[in-house]
Amino acid sequence: MQNDPLSLGEIARGVEAKAFDYCALSDRIWATPELAFQEHRSVAEQSAILEREGFRITTNVGGIPTAFMAEYGRGGPVIGILGEYDALPELSQLSGVLQQEAATQGAHGHGCGHNLLGAGSALAAAALKEALATDGIAGTVRYYGCPAEENGGGKTYMARAGLFDDLDVAFCWHPHIVNEVSTASSLAEIQAYFRFHGRAAHAAALPHMGRSALDAVELMNVGVNYMREHMPSDARVHYAITNTGGDAPNTVQAYAESLFSIRSPLLPDAQRLFGRVRKIAEGAALMTETSVVIQIAGGSSNIIPNKVLQEVMYDNMCRIGPPAFDEADYSFAKKLREAALTEEDLSSSIAPRGPSLKSKILHDGVLALPAREEVDMGTTDVGDVSWIVPTAQCHTACFAIGTGFHTWQLVTQGKLPAAHKAMILAAQTIATTAADCLRNPAILARAKAELKERIGSTSYLCPIPPDVMPDHLCKKPA
After folding, report:
1. Most exposed: 119, 295, 314, 420, by fewest CB within 10 Å?
2. How confident is the model at residue 477, as a pLDDT?
3. Are the beta carbons of 468 and 295 closer than 8 angstroms?
4. pLDDT tens-digit profile of 81-118?
5. DSSP letters for 54-114
6. How far apart are alpha carbons 262 and 285 in whole angstroms?
């Protein structure tokens, strides 16, 4: 039996009935930001609330301490709902203020809204579970607590461990500045450390005895900069120097390292580009008479869009309608734009979606499905899930138009009422779309057929080698 408007309304109201607790959950995670593979408090908060809902909790899935599953029901279809909860370094920020002001100097912050993402996905799973229990519908709801989306590719490790293999469909969302169903692909990524080892020496008395690892890091960066002229324009290579070898200029640095992110619209292209970067690193080591150890630290595949699921999700989002922002929501967003956002911020944020958004402060509509698929220039480990199972995701307007991701301006809005309202819309959209799939097996059949057609004979190939484990990412060399 297909979902009807009354059933959609019942599920949407079920989300609203549980929303208070999950908005509070989001705020607690916002207040205790944790970095990749260190999200122990966030996992404890999420697993506790879902266990109270009646979900069976499995911890340490895939051998990852901060990955877990919460499951309700038996048999198929099996619906996967993906959540995240990792934060970003040094983005601590007071809530609801119009200037940059750290809550704790040097601390972390939820600069991508993953406090909302995880709580909203958990809310969708809880409401869907309630509908299954009430209506006696066969199937399984499985919430995935996924760590390290920002730096490490938690879902990629989980995909490598086979944790998504028995799903029929997967859903997720992301906090955003607009309400829309995402139809774009994404960039695939290879992330790797380049660790140079040299020889220490007194930089003044015996400089000829030293071999500088920091020189090698710098020469590698120069080489990559020259390479940028000769790589595809839609590829990206960027880096952070994660160890400079110390603060003493009179000592030749015996160790230094950098972390590179290499991205391209297709994983094979990213891997080829990574091969070129590897050669540059080896050349820098040769020039400085140092050695280099290259360790892949993470990776993500490009997203495989699924039009069948996108159309069902879009129909549900339109029927639910945009968040009901009030005057206080608009007032704060307007003040933030005037105080802390530039015209360039505004133009950049709306560029992919057209100038009609420029006059708006908060997005109070639902964007139409675009006529053609584009490539989003970001990266997400949702891409790895989408290679294994039909996957769809939506965005909802948690933040003022013009807000950039990974900024204090986003963090300051992360626990305001407007963000909560948009999170509830995301949960309603996911839960109702998942219910459609449970009640109408034809949707699942068509979605699976589309995925099979898109990937053809190409099977999923994890971009992270089998001998690389996440715990390596949190360790520095002795």
Report:
1. 295
2. 39
3. yes
4. 999 999 999 999 999 999 999 999 999 999 999 999 99
5. TPEEEESGGG-TT-EEEEEEESSSEEEEEEE---BTT----TT-SS---SSTT--B-TT-H
6. 20
